[in-house]
Structure formats: C-alpha cells, structure tokens
Amino acid sequence: MNREDGTQAKVLAAALRNWATIDADPSPTVARLVIRQPPEWAYTATVNITGRQYKRVLAFLRDDLADEHPGRSTPERAAAVIDGLITEHRVAGHAHITTADLVEAAPRIGRTRTWIAAHIAELVDTGQLHETRRPQRFRL
Fold first, then answer.
1. Cα Rg for the chain, rounded, in angstroms?
2. Three-state SS for 69?
C-alpha cells in the first residue's frame, strides 16, 4: 500500500494543507504536522495548524481510532479475536492450544483474564475446543 515515490504522503500533505487553508483561522500556529513517507520515512511536507485546527484533528483521530481502542472492545469483538487466534493455530497445523496462547490477547482485546477464561469455558461447552488431560491445554 505504501508507494516508494512518496505519492501517498504527498497526497496526505496536500489534503491537510488544503484543509488548513480552507478552514481559515487567523490564530497563530500552535502545531506543525510533519508528513513522512515510509519505508525510509523521508520528509514530504510540513503543515502549520492553529489551536482550533489542532483540536479538530485530534478529535477526528480519536473518533477514527475509537473502534480499535481496547478499552472499548465489545464482547463480540473480543470473541472474534479469540476465534481468530484459534483459527491461526488450526491453519498453522497445531492440534492444541493453551490458555496462555489465548490470554496473551488480553491487552489487545481489552478484556480481563477472567473474561477470557469464561469464554474458553463457553468454547468447550459448545464443542469448539476439547479438554485434554493436561490442565489449560485444549484440543482444536
């Protein structure tokens, strides 16, 4: 998705510069957005913004990232992440998964270990995981 010629970064810089110009604010500059293009992170442009524009950019970013914020994870989304981990293990050819494999996702999904343990019990009850003789190890 990243283009080596810097096109995407230049388009972003132009869009931000255009937005800052159209949203004319005579207030002094309080922040500078420096746009860089991966993979080398070469400089592309700097866009000066005012305090009001800065607050609008932050509000936009917060709204855009809210769905990915672990603290706002719904039980359904958390369950989907756990299901994804189980699928990854199956695809990798693993026959078993451990509680530790699933608990490592706790920070990513914004759920406690207790919630994950309860979800594992639900997966066992519905036949998606099968208990083994070894504690905290399940057959896929």
1. 23
2. coil
Residues 77 and 121 in one domain: yes
| pLDDT tens digit sequence for 115-131 | 888 899 999 999 999 99
Q: Is 1 within a domain?
A: no
Q: Is residue 34 part of a domain?
A: yes
What's the sign of the alpha-carbon dihedral 91, 94, 95, 101?
negative
Cβ atoms within 10 Å, residue 35: 20
Integer angstrom CA distances of residue 128 from 87, 117, 119, 131: 11, 14, 11, 10
Please state whether the predicted TM-score (pTM) of the whole model is above 0.90. no
Q: Which two tokens stand for residue 3?
A: 């283009």
Residue-range definition of the domain harbouring residue 39: 7-67
Residue 103 CA to residue 108 CA, distance in Å, equals 10
Question: pLDDT tens digits for 60-79?
Answer: 776 665 555 555 578 888 88
Domain co-membership, 61 together with 105:
no
Number of domains in the chain: 2
The Cα–Cα gap between 38 and 11 comes to: 14
